[in-house]
């Protein structure tokens, strides 16, 4: 499938901004009153990895400001993607992103998974035209997760206390935000791995989506 030009640019800008956002998020210090945080479960990394001891106020840094700016940019790009999903532009329709919501999409998913599972275990992927439903599902999950992260980020943007302790609601939203980032990173890793394998197998899928 060939994608519309505006969709290609939207995809590329989202990719660049999201990768930068993940890097900045890992490196920045979070402003506000420091506290000793423990993850809700052992495998969840705390959102406040750089926080100071309780009572210490961390000042806002330029990296945190970059994080806010990138976050709002990503939200704007996601809103544009939502608008595009309501059009009939090639590759843009929302039905392509959530095939599991439809009976024919679920059948296609089941068929692709059952026929291609053996190849996946060996690091071999079917040509794009034979695996569109699985690829669309992963892409859709990434966008849905990114939208949830963006929604939580907007709440934090307006509700975060940069000079003191956070409310329980904001603490919860912050932990949810970080957990969703972990889910997104896992999906992104799977997506990038699939692209690399496709390219190595001569499928040249990058040319279909690059601007």
Key traits:
211 residues, mainly alpha, Fumarate Reductase Cytochrome B subunit, two-stranded antiparallel sheet, elongated
Task: Describe the protein.
- With 211 residues, the chain is mostly helical.
- The chain has one domain: Up-down Bundle (Fumarate Reductase Cytochrome B subunit), CATH 1.20.950.
- It is built from 6 helices and 2 strands, in the order αββααααα.
- Strands 1-2 form a two-stranded antiparallel sheet.
- The radius of gyration is 19 Å and the shape is elongated.
The residue fraction in helices comes out at 55-70%
Might you state the CATH topology name? Fumarate Reductase Cytochrome B subunit
Rg over CA atoms, rounded to whole Å, is 19 Å
How many separate domains make up the residues?
1
Name the CATH architecture: Up-down Bundle
Number of strands: 2
Strand content: under 5%
Shape: elongated
Assembly classification: single chain
Distance between the termini: 14 Å
The largest sheet is:
2 strands, antiparallel
């Amino acid at each position: 499938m060939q994608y519309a030009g505006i969709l290609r640019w939207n995809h590329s800008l989202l990719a660049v901004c999201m990768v930068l956002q993940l890097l900045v998020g890992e490196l920045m210090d979070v402003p506000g009153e420091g506290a000793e945080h423990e993850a809700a479960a052992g495998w969840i990394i705390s959102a406040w990895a750089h926080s100071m001891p309780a009572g210490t106020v961390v000042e806002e840094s330029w990296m945190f400001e970059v994080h806010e700016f990138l976050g709002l940019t990503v939200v704007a790009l996601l809103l544009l993607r939502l608008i595009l999903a309501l059009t009939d532009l090639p590759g843009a329709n929302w039905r392509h992103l959530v095939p599991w919501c439809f009976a024919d999409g679920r059948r296609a998913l089941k068929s692709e998974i059952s026929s291609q599972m053996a190849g996946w275990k060996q690091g071999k992927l079917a040509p794009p035209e034979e695996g569109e439903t699985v690829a669309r599902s992963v892409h859709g999950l990434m966008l849905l997760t990114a939208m949830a992260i963006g929604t939580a980020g907007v709440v934090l943007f307006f509700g975060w206390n940069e000079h003191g302790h956070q409310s329980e609601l904001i603490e919860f939203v912050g932990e949810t935000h970080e957990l969703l980032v972990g889910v997104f990173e896992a999906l992104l890793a799977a997506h990038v791995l699939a692209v690399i394998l496709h390219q190595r197998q001569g499928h040249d899928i990058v040319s279909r989506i690059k601007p």
